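thought: user wants a sequence for this fold. calling inverse folding tool.
action: design(structure=
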C-alpha cells in the first residue's frame, strides 16, 4: 500500500494547559476523537512522535505515552520502517459519525439520564472545591497537619505492614477491626461519657458514611426529619437524597429548639443534631434541651442522630458529655470521625448504635464497602491504646487556642469597622460579623486572595440577623499565615 503523505491538521489537537487532564491524555483524546469522527481516515500516516512533539511544543515522552495508549487500544498500528498509521481495520460505520453522534462523543456534551436519586443528587449537592482541600485563609477548617506526629504514625503503620497477621490480609469483620472498636469504645466512654461496648461500635470511612448508612436504614421516602437551622450541609444533602421531608428547626443559644420541632412535626421519624458544638453556630445544647429531645424521641418512637462534631476541641471549661450518655431508651445513634482529629485522608470514623440495630448495620456494611482498610485500623488502634491520641488532642487544643487568639487580635487591630471576630469556646472556626452582607464580603475577599464562607449558605431560609456572618477556619494556618490573611482583607 502506497504511503499517504503524513499530515495532522493543527486544528485536530486543541490542548489546554488549564485542563485537569494530563497533556498525554489530551493528545490521546484529540487523536481518538478525530479518528472516530472520520477526520483521520483509516490508513492515514501520522507524523513521528518527535515531529509531533516539536509541532505541539511538548516533550517527546508526552506524545509517546499518548501513541502507546492508542496503539494498545487498536486505534493506531505501527509498521517497522514505515511509521504509525490509523488502523486499517476499524469498521466504516465508526468512521462516519453524524454531527449529532460526533457531539455526543465530547465529554459533557449530553445530559445523561439518571435515576430520581441521581437527579436529586445532581441538583442539590455541589462537589466544587472538594478536591482542593489545601489550607488557605480562611477556608476550609482543617487540622494542623504540620503538628501531626507522622514519624510515630509511620512506625505504627510500618510495623503492621512488616509483620501482618493473616486476619489483616483477608476480609475482616464488617463492623471493623475488633481491637480498634474496643479502643474507640474505651476512649469515648472516658472522654465523652458515651455508654457502649465494642459490640455497638462500627468503624466507618468517616462521619459522612455514618450519616448515609443511618438514613438509608432508618428512613423511608417522605419521612419527616428534624434538622438544625442552620445545618451541616452534608447531613441535609444525604437526607434530601433519601427523599426525607426536612423540618428545619431553629437553633438559638441553647441549641435546637425542641419545642419548635414538636410544634412543626411532633411525629417526625428522626432528629439530626450537633449538640456538643453546633455546626456552624458553635453553640452547645443545654441539658434541659437534651432531656427534652430524648423524651420526645421516646414518646414519638423516633431516632436521634448525634453528630459529635468537634467535641474534642474545647478551650474554656469542660465540655458537656455526649447526648448519647443520657439516653436510657436506646434512641440515639452516635457518630464521629478522626478526619478533623488526625488527618482527613485517613478516612476512618465511627458509629455507636443501639444493640438492636447492630445486625442490620453489619449487613449494610457488607453490601456497601465491606470494611475500611485493615492496616490503618490496626495502626489507629495502637495510636489510641498507647495514649498517643490523648496527648495529641491536648497538644492541638493548646495550638488551636493560640491560633484563635491570633485571629481575634489581628482582626480587631486590622479590620475594625469591617469585621468583628469574637473568641469562641470551642471548634475549628470562628464566626466574623461584617458591616455588610456576608455574601458580598465573600466575593470581595476572594478578589483579594482570601476564602470565606457566608453563614447564610447554611440556612434553608437565611435569617436577616445572620446575613452578615462569615465563617473563618483558622486551625490549619500558622500565626504568620493568619496575620497575612487578615492583612489581605484589610486592603479590601
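)
observation: tool returned 492 residues.
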Amino acid at each position: 500500500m502506497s504511503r499517504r503523505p503524513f499530515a495532522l491538521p493543527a486544528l485536530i489537537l486543541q490542548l489546554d494547559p488549564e485542563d485537569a487532564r494530563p497533556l498525554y491524555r489530551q493528545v490521546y483524546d484529540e487523536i481518538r476523537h478525530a479518528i472516530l469522527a472520520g477526520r483521520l481516515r483509516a490508513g492515514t500516516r501520522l507524523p513521528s512522535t518527535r515531529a509531533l512533539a516539536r509541532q505541539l511544543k511538548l516533550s517527546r515522552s508526552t506524545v509517546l505515552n499518548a501513541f502507546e495508549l492508542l496503539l494498545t487500544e487498536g486505534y493506531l498500528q505501527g509498521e517497522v520502517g514505515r511509521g504509525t498509521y490509523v488502523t486499517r481495520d476499524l469498521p466504516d460505520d465508526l468512521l462516519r459519525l453524524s454531527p449529532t453522534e460526533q457531539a455526543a462523543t465530547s465529554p459533557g456534551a449530553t445530559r445523561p439520564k439518571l435515576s430520581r436519586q441521581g437527579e436529586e443528587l445532581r441538583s442539590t449537592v455541589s462537589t466544587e472545591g472538594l478536591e482542593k482541600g489545601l489550607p488557605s485563609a480562611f477556608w476550609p477548617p482543617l487540622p494542623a497537619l504540620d503538628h501531626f506526629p507522622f514519624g510515630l504514625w509511620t512506625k505504627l503503620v510500618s510495623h503492621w505492614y512488616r509483620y501482618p497477621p493473616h486476619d489483616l490480609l483477608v476480609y475482616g469483620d464488617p463492623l471493623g477491626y475488633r481491637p480498634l472498636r474496643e479502643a474507640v469504645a474505651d476512649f469515648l466512654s472516658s472522654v465523652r461519657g458515651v455508654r457502649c461496648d465494642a459490640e455497638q461500635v462500627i468503624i466507618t470511612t468517616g462521619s459522612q458514611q455514618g450519616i448515609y448508612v443511618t438514613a438509608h436504614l432508618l428512613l423511608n421516602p417522605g419521612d419527616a426529619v428534624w434538622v438544625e437551622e442552620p445545618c451541616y450541609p452534608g447531613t441535609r444533602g444525604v437526607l434530601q437524597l433519601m427523599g426525607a421531608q426536612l423540618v428545619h428547626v431553629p437553633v438559638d443559644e441553647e441549641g435546637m429548639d425542641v419545642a419548635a420541632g414538636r410544634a412543626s412535626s411532633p411525629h417526625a421519624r428522626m432528629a439530626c443534631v450537633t449538640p456538643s458544638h453546633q455546626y456552624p453556630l458553635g453553640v452547645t445544647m443545654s441539658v434541659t434541651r437534651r432531656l427534652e429531645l430524648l423524651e420526645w424521641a421516646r414518646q414519638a418512637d423516633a431516632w436521634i442522630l448525634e453528630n459529635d462534631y468537634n467535641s474534642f476541641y474545647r478551650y474554656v471549661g469542660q465540655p458537656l458529655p455526649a447526648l448519647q450518655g443520657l439516653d436510657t431508651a436506646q434512641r440515639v445513634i452516635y457518630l464521629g470521625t478522626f478526619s478533623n482529629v488526625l488527618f482527613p485522608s485517613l478516612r476512618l470514623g465511627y458509629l455507636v448504635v443501639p444493640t438492636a440495630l447492630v445486625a442490620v448495620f453489619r449487613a449494610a456494611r457488607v453490601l456497601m464497602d465491606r470494611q475500611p482498610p485493615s492496616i490503618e485500623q490496626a495502626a489507629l488502634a495502637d495510636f489510641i491504646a498507647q495514649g498517643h491520641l490523648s496527648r495529641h488532642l491536648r497538644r492541638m487544643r493548646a495550638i488551636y487556642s493560640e491560633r484563635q487568639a491570633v485571629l481575634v487580635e489581628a482582626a480587631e487591630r486590622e479590620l475594625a469597622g469591617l469585621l468583628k471576630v469574637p473568641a469562641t469556646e470551642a471548634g475549628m472556626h470562628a464566626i466574623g460579623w461584617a458591616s455588610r452582607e456576608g455574601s458580598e464580603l465573600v466575593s470581595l475577599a476572594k478578589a483579594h486572595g482570601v476564602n470565606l464562607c457566608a453563614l447564610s449558605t447554611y440556612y434553608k431560609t437565611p435569617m436577616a440577623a445572620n446575613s452578615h456572618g462569615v465563617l473563618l477556619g483558622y486551625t490549619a494556618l500558622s500565626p504568620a499565615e493568619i496575620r497575612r490573611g487578615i492583612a489581605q482583607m484589610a486592603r479590601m
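thought: summarizing for user.
answer: Here is the designed sequence. The first strand starts at residue 45 and ends at 46.
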